[in-house]
Amino acid sequence: MNGWSERDHRMALSATFDGGEPRLTSALAETEPGQLWAHARSGVFGAATRRRAESLDMSGILATARRERIRFVMPGDDEWPDVLDDLGALPAMAARGGVPVGLWAKGPGHLAEWVARAVSIVGSRTSTPYGAGAASDLAAELAGEGWTVISGGALGIDVSAHRGAIDGGGRTIAVLACGVDVPYPRSNAPILDEISSHHLIVSEFPPGLRPARVRFLARNRLIAALSAGSVVVQGRIRSGSRNTMAWAEALQRICMAVPGPITIAESYTPNQWLRDHRAELVGSGAEILELVGRHGEHLLDIPREPENLLDQLAEPLLTIFEALPARGYRSPGELSVMAGMAVPSCLAALAALEAQGLAEPYEGGWRAIPPARAGLSPEELPARSG
């Protein structure tokens, strides 16, 4: 239309075409938005698209956006995340793909700044307490380290991840398969309201649009592209999280999975990705950050097994200790033969072991005292046998 800006044309295209529609996103790489809008109105993209373009109530959409404090973010804006441009180099997947024409956003968060350090956590809508707890704990750890947690605002793992990030005092972004003003599912309305008030909700779909299956598939590529890495916590064999992980893999983002019990269907997707070596096994926020952070930024502090008394024994003492019985007793002569050591040396080693609480004499014989019980009084030691 005459007098429209590029922003106007992009908003109109986002309200006329479904998100991630390849015929739009591929054309957008070579054609100006204004020309594409003219093509849509003239029937170049088909009669159905022409009818949608002609009947578009752009003034109504903009009125809703103003009322709900929704903004439109497009390439060239300060808030536009350049990482989304990576989608332009990939073929479509499940009939969705490409760089979005723009994003509708609601909330005080700055999209480009928040996704500079972001990890997505995705998974089953029918999560178990184990999965929900894992997603929440991981999100809280990541948020506590200053990383943004991204998920899809759905039931199950998604809402657990959002809630964990909020409880961890950090930031979260919900990427929706509907308009940012549409509380879907209805049961998630309270947390979606909280996210839009204090964090950020984004979508490539215009205000008021309801969700549909193909829109979830379009949404998944954005979750993967906006993140440095994606973590799948739970997912059944046909889980949508498989699509998100496939996009993350194609985008060369870090793919991670939390293993689950083999006895439940929700473990299928993460366990399969681990079995096929397509994802890294993670069980803590520290393990995630070691993978997605800058080199050397988050070095994982792996706890070492505590040393016990045996680790400190010299070779002769260890040889004699290993020849001592835990039950019953052996004489120094028997120990000498078993250890291949002269009797005087054997007696000296036994004395040293006794001093460290690792050996005990009785009626001409000796027995071992396990390191865990070394230093206990005679009354606390197990009764002698033999």
Can you tag this structure with a few keywords?
386 residues; alpha/beta; Rossmann fold; Arc Repressor Mutant, subunit A; 3 domains; 16 helices; 11 strands; elongated; disordered C terminus
Please provide a written account of the structure.
With 386 residues, the chain is α/β, with parallel strands linked by helices. It folds into three domains: 1-56, no CATH class; 61-292, Rossmann fold (3-Layer(aba) Sandwich); 309-380, Winged helix-like DNA-binding domain superfamily/Winged helix DNA-binding domain (Arc Repressor Mutant, subunit A, Orthogonal Bundle). It contains 16 helices and eleven strands. The chain has helices spanning 6-16, 22-28, 33-42, 47-55, 58-68, 111-114, 129-144, 157-167, 189-198, 213-225, 241-250, 268-275, 285-292, 315-323, 332-339, 343-355; strands spanning 70-73, 103-106, 118-122, 148-151, 172-175, 200-203, 229-232, 254-257, 280-281, 359-362, 365-368. The strands form two sheets. The chain has a nine-stranded mixed beta sheet with strand order 1-2-6-5-4-3-7-8-9, with helices on both faces. Strands 10-11 form a two-stranded antiparallel sheet. Strand 10 and strand 11 form a beta hairpin. It starts with 5 loop residues before the first helix and ends in an 18-residue tail after the last strand. The model is unreliable at 376-386 (pLDDT under 50).
